[in-house]
Specification:
The protein is mostly helical and about 140 residues long. It has seven helices and two strands, in the order αββαααααα. The structure holds protoporphyrin IX containing FE.
């Protein structure tokens, strides 16, 4: 199996589950916001329910980017929104994003293993590299 397939299988497993009434994105956001006061501060005025839906949608585009290596207008837009001149999401904050996501997957994916973790890191890394690169452009 290639890493794209491993990722897809893991993603469908985590989306199906709820733990103590919380879905995957609830737990990811709890972890992400608790991961650093700097992350918490950025989300101070955010309505989290809407945000969770938007980020869920954005995963589809991250996967597309990983697979096709083509920058879609959607990716261009979220990179712009996160850049220094807009929300000022400094590149180091992406490490909290990735780690919180991996921690949430560990809880939600019953088949979690190194290959699963690596598949997520691979899929996310193209998009994250792109977003960080656009930070001060
Ligand atoms: C690959 C990583 C990330 C993806 C795919 C992502 C995706 C998104 C998307 C789709 C939105 C909604 C944009 C819109 O409404 O137009 C958003 C908003 C936002 N993101 Fe990210 N994001 C990422 C990383 C981060 C990181 C590391 C931070 C750091 C704290 C962050 C903070 C925010 C904030 C503060 C908002 C605005 C929320 C609001 O509307 O109040 N994001 N993100």
């Amino acid at each position: 199996m290639n890493y794209e397939d491993i990722f897809n299988d893991s993603y469908s497993r985590v989306l199906k589950r709820e733990i103590d009434g919380k879905n995957f994105f609830d737990v990811f956001y709890d972890k992400f916001i608790g991961s650093s006061p700097f992350v918490k501060e950025k989300f101070a005025n955010t309505k989290l329910e809407k945000q969770k839906e938007k980020v869920k949608k954005s995963f589809y585009h991250l996967i597309q980017f990983f697979v096709t290596k083509n920058v879609s207008p959607y990716m261009e837009n979220i990179a712009k929104v996160h850049s220094k001149s807009k929300m000022d999401i400094e590149p180091y904050l992406y490490d909290f994003f990735t780690q919180s996501l991996i921690d949430a997957i560990k809880e939600f994916d019953t088949e979690f293993c190194d290959d699963v973790e690596l598949s997520w890191r691979m899929v996310l890394s193209s998009g994250i590299t792109y977003m960080k690169f656009q930070y001060d452009k």
